[in-house]
Amino acid sequence: MDLHQIDLNLLILFDALYRHQSVSLAADEVCISQSAFSHGIARLRKRMNDELFVRVNNQMQPTPRAEEIAQHLHQALPFIHNAINDSDHFDASMDKSEFKISATDYTEFSLLPKLVGQVSRQAPNIKLTVVGAKAPQPLTHLENNEVDFALGFSHEIETSSLIEHHTWLTDSYCTVARKNHPALAQGLDLDTFLALKHVRVSPWGEKQGIVDQVLAQHKLKRHVSLQLPSVLVAPHTIIHSDMILTMPRIVAEQVAKQVEIEIFTPPIPIPDYHLNIYWHKINADKASFKWMKQLFQNLNF
Question: CATH no. for residue 54?
């Protein structure tokens, strides 16, 4: 079916009904009467040759064909919205935009306190919605238009023809252990590092982290006794054991102010990590996005 064969306004009605599953709520959103809304959906049903929505337990449930259409509209409508809206004017003090950000607990810990402080002062009506990063590659969320910005913790910059980025923080790793660890009175050498048991942080259940990768390059392997998804929880698991943990130095220095741990330089060279902020190029010229990108770039750790 060609686009000229269908009234594109009907797709706006479809999207509203799909999200609300209620004719009255959907009609209110698009500011038309329930009668006019129902008439529009009837026209779309006829054009698509499918019921699209069926009333079940007082809710308008989508048919399989409607589910298929909705998946495409979920990506397409925001692009159309961006195309027709004026992006030249932006008043941070009055703007009521919502920005969706994906992040891990570590990237939240690093960036959000400073970001929230600046947003609350400069743009008190803007809403930030943070969702957990579902995968180690944040680009998928952006390319699918699920989030506006993605915070990525990596050792290499992820690249895409559709995605831009800003590296907000670069830092090193350190190895931490409980205070007065009996094996570390003389410091941490490679033999001791390999002899001790380790905690590995794997946000997505990875079986190998950067430390394991570096060791493998030297045909070495460590003994991992505990694997956790959270870098913020991990330091607290070693204070009553003889395990050691290799983690971002900035977090370790913060934790060392609260719990009894010692910080060591790892006995092997580990590449620095980067905290990157990614966004979709489709939004790059919007005034609100320009403001937010500038805010990111002006923040200092």
Answer: 1.10.10.10
